[in-house]
């Protein structure tokens, strides 16, 4: 395969170009693509031109470029994400009908939560999670669920990194996080109050596959100052996550009993 002077293959450079569309804005000029992908402008021009000819990218009338329908079609047709979304959506809809704020499902990608689906009520409160968007593992309810069920090695790798404090409520101390992860495993769900953004509380529970491995986190986001305690949504959330898990072939023990930590839990 043709390699640049830096020794990188065309495929690697092409992937770097495609990944520049993973963040907003999703429509970019070639010079923005070159800068984000750290490529010489001539290389970016040539590769973007080829990707446009192949239909992977599309050019707008102002010459800016975005992901084309062909690439979207290929990525959406038969991915694990689509299977998970399809299985989860009926349960998410039922959950959303009760919570009437935001319901979402996410998987672990690197040290981020990647959100696959999100349902939101008109007039719902603030939510920084977007479909195909990422949020950090240590600062979201879904992330804490996914981390709690990851290997001890991966947990330590994450906990040893410098962890960003997004709000005054973000837990960044490794010892405190370890205790929080143990509580997630014991309780079967987690509440993350205003950890990623002020004004919003996340609640998440694990989704398991046929091998009983945790493959996703189902979560709801409610306003921090909403009526009632966020805890009141836990039974519906846990029931829905168990429903998705069963539909995925997991052997989930009967009943939807959940363990709560006193009337006014401290987490
Ligand atoms: C969370 O899962 O903790 C979470 C996610 C998105 C938000 C707020 C909270 O906007």
TrEMBL record:
Gene3D superfamilies: 3.30.450.40, Winged helix-like DNA-binding domain superfamily/Winged helix DNA-binding domain. InterPro entries: GAF-like_dom_sf, HTH_MetabolicPath_Reg, Tscrpt_reg_IclR_C, Tscrpt_reg_IclR_N, WH-like_DNA-bd_sf, WH_DNA-bd_sf. The keyword DNA-binding applies. Pfam families: HTH_IclR (PF09339), IclR_C (PF01614). Signal peptide: none annotated. Keywords: DNA-binding, Transcription, Transcription regulation. Residues 70-250 form the IclR-ED domain. Residues 8-69 form the HTH iclR-type domain. Residues 248-267 are annotated as: Disordered. The keyword DNA damage does not apply. SUPFAM superfamilies: GAF domain-like, Winged helix' DNA-binding domain. PANTHER family: HELIX-TURN-HELIX TRANSCRIPTIONAL REGULATOR, ICLR FAMILY, HTH-TYPE TRANSCRIPTIONAL REPRESSOR ALLR. This is IclR family transcriptional regulator. It comes from Nocardiopsis coralli.
């Amino acid at each position: 395969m043709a390699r640049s002077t830096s020794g990188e293959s065309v495929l690697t450079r092409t992937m770097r170009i495609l990944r520049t569309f993973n963040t907003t804005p999703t429509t970019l000029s070639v010079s923005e693509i070159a800068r984000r992908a750290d490529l010489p402008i001539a290389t970016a021009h040539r590769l973007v031109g080829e990707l446009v000819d192949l239909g992977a990218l599309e050019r707008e009338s102002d010459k800016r470029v975005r992901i084309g329908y062909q690439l979207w079609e290929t990525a959406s047709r038969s991915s694990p994400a689509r299977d998970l979304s399809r299985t989860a959506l009926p349960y998410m809809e039922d959950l959303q009908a009760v919570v009437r704020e935001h319901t979402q499902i996410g998987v672990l990608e690197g040290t981020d939560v990647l959100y696959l689906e999100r349902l939101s009520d008109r007039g719902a409160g603030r939510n920084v999670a977007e479909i195909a968007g990422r949020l950090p593992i240590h600062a979201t309810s879904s992330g804490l669920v996914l981390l709690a069920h990851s290997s001890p090695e991966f947990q330590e790798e994450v906990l040893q990194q410098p962890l960003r404090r997004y709000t005054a409520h973000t837990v960044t101390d490794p010892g405190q996080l370890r205790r929080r992860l143990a509580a997630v495993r014991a309780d079967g769900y987690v509440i993350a109050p205003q950890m990623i953004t002020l004004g919003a509380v996340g609640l998440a529970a694990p989704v398991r596959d046929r091998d009983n491995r945790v493959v996703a986190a189902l979560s709801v986001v409610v306003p921090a100052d909403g009526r009632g305690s966020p805890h009141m949504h836990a039974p519906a959330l846990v029931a829905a996550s168990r429903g998705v898990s069963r539909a995925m072939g997991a052997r989930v023990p009967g009943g939807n009993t959940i363990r709560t930590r006193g009337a006014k839990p401290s987490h």
